[in-house]
Amino acid sequence: MADGIDDLAKRVHTVEDKVDKxxxxxxxxxxxxxxxxxxxxxxxxxxxxALVEQRQYTEFAATxxxxxxxxxxxxxxxxxxxxxxALVEQRxxTEHSHRELxxxxxxxxxxxxxxxxxxxxAxVEQRQYTEFAHKxxxxxxxAGFSRVDGLFEQVGKQSDRVEHKLxxxxxxxPPTSDDGANGT
Length: 184
Hints:
mainly alpha
């Protein structure tokens, strides 16, 4: 049995050597794991710090961008207000100008209508005067023609009387030698 014990002692010793090697390897691995854990932790800390820094920069940039956008939107809003004010003022001016123009046009048409009424009145008056003048002229012409007719009638009567007297005078004259030659 001594052999069995010696074998057992050898085997225990071999196991102890193996356990020592495993322990040494485990210790080395534990050191490596600890070192890796430390490096990973440092990496996470660096990433966390970079993320924090990035977040702070992003917040800073967003704040500045927000401020610039607020200033820009304020300027744009002011410009829109300015343009809107100018449009409102232009509309008022246009409406005022339109009203003035309409009033001037209406006044012009009123003056033109009044002038047409004056011209129409003058034409009516001229026509009435022309009709009156024609009537008077007609009456004067009728009277004048009546007088001329009367004068012609008188001349005709006197001419008849002169002719009658000449006829009587000729009838009482002795015949002349010329009368016989002419055959009268």
